[in-house]
Amino acid sequence: MSEKKRAVVGSDHAGIAGRKRAVETLRSLGYEVEELGPDEGESADYPDLAHQVASRIEGGQASTGVLVCGTGQGMAMAANRHPGVRAAVITDEFTAEMSRGHNNANVACFGERVVGVAQIAELLTKFLGTEFEGGRHARRVDKIEPSVPERS
Ligand code: RB5
Known about the structure:
Elements: E1 6-11, H1 16-28, E2 32-36, H2 46-58, E3 64-69, H3 73-79, E4 87-89, H4 93-101, E5 107-111, H5 112-115, H6 117-128, H7 136-142
Parallel strand pairs: 1-2, 1-3, 3-5, 4-5
Helix pairs in contact: 1-6, 2-3, 4-6
The protein binds D-ribose (RB5).
């Protein structure tokens, strides 16, 4: 039997409903999901959750991350400080597809105040269903990490 794919989902207080919808979406697609973040009525600082999720991707405990805050922006900024993490702010179907196909994104960031909860489920499904295209895009993705010496 093949192992379940593992995902980790986090949010701050501005993304709780979207986080819960993302967890449902991932589980319905067969993922084993770890959920991190505040309960309704609690507040949380978005970088704390971004670092918790990104650490699990960096350490290999999960292959896919999802982060939800008000805009998705702060989450992506913090998550992208971690080696091996490629966090993309997803705003529409095109960015959902391209961030996987061309950038091999492994963390999807959503702004619940930007796209809304229902769209998070749709865009996440598109993100998860899109394969990295490899080829010339693999060369470019390899150059994202600052440790790669050849940049010409
Ligand atoms: C919280 O009010 C808000 O600043 C946060 O959720 C996010 O949008 C930051 O990027």
